[in-house]
Amino acid sequence: MELNILTKNGEGLKAETSYVLLPGATGQIGILPGHAKMVVLLKAGQIKYQDGGETKAIPINGGVGKILDDKVLILA
User: Fold this and answer.
1) How many domains does the structure of the chain reveal?
2) Cα separation of 50 and 38, whole Å?
3) Are 42 and 24 in contact, with CB atoms under 8 Å apart?
4) What is the distance between the alpha carbons of residues 37 and 51, in angstroms, rounded to a whole number?
5) Is 67 among the domain residues?
6) pLDDT at residue number 8
7) Would 53 be classed as within a structural domain?
8) Which residue in 1, 18, 24 sits closest to 73, CA to CA?
9) By the number of CB atoms within 10 A of the CB, which of 20, 33, 61, 73 ranks highest?
10) Phi, psi at residue 34, to the nearest 5°?
11) Which residues form the domain of 30?
């Protein structure tokens, strides 16, 4: 899956990953390849993702996530 995190200053991260864990407004949302298309409101927390066998985390102060066709786009 492709993970893109965009900030008001431009692109913050672009990575290939096997999963993404998002801090949704109503709880954590796990995204795997082939996930249903959706738009989700994000709260302050951490976006976690797999990078080369290592779990990494990126802090955000909220935003919006869009999931479609094995792509996760975060506007934070």
Assistant:
1) 1
2) 21
3) yes
4) 23
5) no
6) 84
7) yes
8) 1
9) 20
10) 85, 10
11) 1-40+49-57
Is residue 53 over pLDDT 90?
no
The encoded tokens of residue 19 equal 């999963």
Domain at 12, CATH number: 2.60.15.10
Does residue 15 lie within any of the structural domains? yes
> What would the pLDDT profile of 2-52 be if each residue is shown by its tens digit?
999 998 887 789 999 999 999 999 999 999 999 999 999 999 999 999 988
Whether 13 contacts 7, CB under 8 Å: no
Q: How far apart are CA 17 and CA 11, in angstroms?
A: 17
Sheet with 54-68, edge to edge strand ranges: 10-16, 2-7, 71-75, 54-68, 38-51, 20-24, 27-31
